[in-house]
């Protein structure tokens, strides 16, 4: 009797072990499939990242050539960072003092940037206005209460020119004014204040705009 009981327990144990083993095998198989899918996704993302980096390098190289004269005069500085092409433009070449209207030379410079950027319709263009910390003068204070308004107006002026004159897709464009609050040099010197008065045009990977639900 006891022997038969042990035999039954052995058989039941063997069956349970077999069932558990089969269950674990299924789980392991599912996990292997998930891991394989994740590895493929990682490879795809790495390939896309490499492609974005290459496009950024191509764009930056084209900008460097098109703006070579301005760079030689230290009116324009180029930088590439995290897949973005960053163009720092001295406000002296874009605007007259206290004005938000683009000069003829400023229009020509922005036009050169647009000519290059138009070849990359999948890129977004952010236009940033920056200033030094010198308060706006009394002759323009009624129109621009602070450097925030002035820097915003200049950024929007560049945006409007890109849109109205060159028919750029407005979905690509955005503008913001930072006033004196993001300096790149000391405001204690004339040279430093000159560097801080600038417009920065950032061309980078585009993000799909949110879709409105009907």
Plain-language structure description:
This protein is α+β, with helices and mostly antiparallel strands. The chain has one domain: OmpA-like domain (60s Ribosomal Protein L30, Chain: A), CATH 3.30.1330. Helices cover about 55% and strands about 15% of the residues. The protein has a 5-stranded mixed beta sheet with strand order 1-2-5-3-4. Helix 1 runs antiparallel to helix 4. The chain is elongated. The N and C termini lie far apart (about 75 Å).
Order of helices and strands: HHEEHHEHEHE
What percent of the residues sit in helical stretches (DSSP H or I)? 40-55%
**Record field, number of beta strands:** 5
CATH architecture: 2-Layer Sandwich
Low-confidence spans = none
Q: Summarize the main sheet.
A: 5 strands, mixed
The number of helices is: 6
Return the domain count.
1
Radius of gyration: 30 Å
- Structural class based on helices, strands and sheet pairing: alpha+beta
What does the secondary structure layout of this molecule look like, with pairings?
Elements (H helix, E strand, L loop, with lengths): L1 H65 L1 H5 L3 E6 L2 E7 H4 L9 H14 L5 E8 L16 H19 L7 E5 L12 H7 L1 E8 L9
Parallel strand pairs: 3-4
Antiparallel strand pairs: 1-2, 2-5, 3-5
Helix pairs in contact: 1-4
Features:
6 helices; 214 residues; elongated; 60s Ribosomal Protein L30, Chain: A; 5-stranded mixed β-sheet
Describe what is shown at a glance.
By secondary structure, this protein is α+β, with helices and mostly antiparallel strands. The chain has helices spanning 2-66, 68-72, 91-94, 104-117, 147-165, 190-196; strands at 76-81, 84-90, 123-130, 173-177, 198-205.
């Amino acid at each position: 009797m006891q022997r038969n009981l042990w035999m039954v327990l052995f058989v039941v144990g063997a069956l349970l072990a077999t069932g558990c083993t089969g269950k674990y095998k299924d789980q392991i198989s599912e996990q292997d499939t998930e891991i394989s899918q994740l590895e493929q996704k990682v490879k795809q993302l790495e390939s896309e990242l490499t492609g974005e980096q290459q496009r950024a390098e191509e764009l930056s190289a084209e900008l460097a050539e098109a703006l070579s004269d301005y760079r030689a005069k230290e009116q324009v500085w180029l930088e590439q960072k995290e897949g973005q092409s960053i163009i720092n433009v001295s406000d002296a070449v874009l605007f007259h003092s206290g004005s938000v209207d683009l000069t003829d030379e400023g229009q020509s410079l922005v036009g050169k940037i647009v000519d290059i950027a138009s070849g990359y319709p999948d890129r977004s263009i952010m236009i940033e206005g920056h200033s030094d910390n010198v308060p706006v003068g009394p002759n323009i204070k009624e129109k621009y209460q602070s450097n925030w308004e002035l820097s915003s107006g200049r950024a929007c002026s560049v945006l409007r020119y890109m849109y109205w004159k060159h028919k750029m897709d407005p979905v690509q464009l955005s503008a913001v004014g930072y006033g004196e609050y993001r300096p790149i040099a000391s405001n204690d010197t004339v040279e430093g204040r000159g560097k801080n008065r600038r417009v920065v045009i950032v061309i980078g990977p585009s993000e799909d705009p949110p879709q409105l639900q009907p």
